[in-house]
Amino acid sequence: MKIFVAELIGTFTLVLFGCGAAVLAGEFVGQLGIALAFGLSIVAMAYGIGPISGCHINPAVSFGAFVAGRLGMKDMFLYWAAQFAGALAAAGALYLIASGKPGYDIAINGLGQNGYDAGSPGGYSLAAGFLFEVVATFLFLVVILGSTAKNAPAGFAGLSIGLTLAMIHIAGIQVTGVSVNPARSFGPAVFVGGEALTQLWLFIVAPLIGAGLAGFLATLNLTVSED
């Protein structure tokens, strides 16, 4: 139960403040500000809930840990349930907050959902979006699995992971809005519906592929392993 609550709170925080920066403050903070909001959310939660659950707050991270042999299947499904629930709750809270401003229309302003083709902020294709999400998630998991290994420097994992997520957003917001996290994509898509929901498959499949590759690489000891 402690792990479930921790992961729910952590994912809620990531989605509320990451997507919230785009929806509530995007015109003021710009792409860099949105990227930092996602990255700083990870840093904060890594030190806040990391001692309880490891601060996955991302189904792709849990899947990568499973493939790498660091997490059992039963536990992975527990993490997933908490993460998707937290993301959905955060998207609902963000919608209620955004609706408090006159003129807000979820069909026009959205909730920071991800997309490709017409749903991409920069008009990038499905192929470009899929490739970006696979590669970005793979590299994200390489950092996560390496910086949380037993022989990694203690106390710096949260910072390195948060900065990596910010870097990914700086480069990729125009491509897909950046997912690398199926739960982060799921919450907003459920509320926005339409195209965001029909395109959701990419932001589940591509991050899981990237995470799985990184997890498999860790088992070959080609990157920093847990032992």
3D structure, described in words:
The protein is mainly alpha-helical. The chain has a single domain (2-103, 111-219), classed as Glycerol uptake facilitator protein (Up-down Bundle), CATH 1.20.1080. The protein has nine helices and no strands. It has helices at residues 2-53, 59-67, 73-98, 106-109, 126-147, 157-176, 182-192, 194-198, 202-219. The longest helix has 52 residues, at 2-53. The chain is globular and about 50 Å long. The two termini are 28 Å apart. The model has no long low-confidence stretch (mean pLDDT 93).
Proportion of residues in helical segments: over 70%
CATH class: Mainly Alpha
Tell me the radius of gyration. Answer: 16 Å
Count of individual helical segments: 9
Our estimate of the beta-strand percent is under 5%
**What structural category characterises the helix and strand content?**
mainly alpha
Number of strands: 0
The CATH architecture comes to Up-down Bundle
Mean pLDDT: 93
Domains, number? 1
SSE order: HHHHHHHHH
Cα separation of the termini: 28 Å
| Shape summary | globular
CATH superfamily: Glycerol uptake facilitator protein
Residue runs with pLDDT of under 50 for 5 or more positions: none
Q: What summary fits the major beta sheet?
A: none
> What fold name stands as the CATH topology?
Glycerol uptake facilitator protein
GO molecular function: water channel activity
Transmembrane segments: 35-57, 77-98, 124-144, 156-180, 200-224
Protein name: Aquaporin Z
Family: Belongs to the MIP/aquaporin (TC 1.A.8) family.
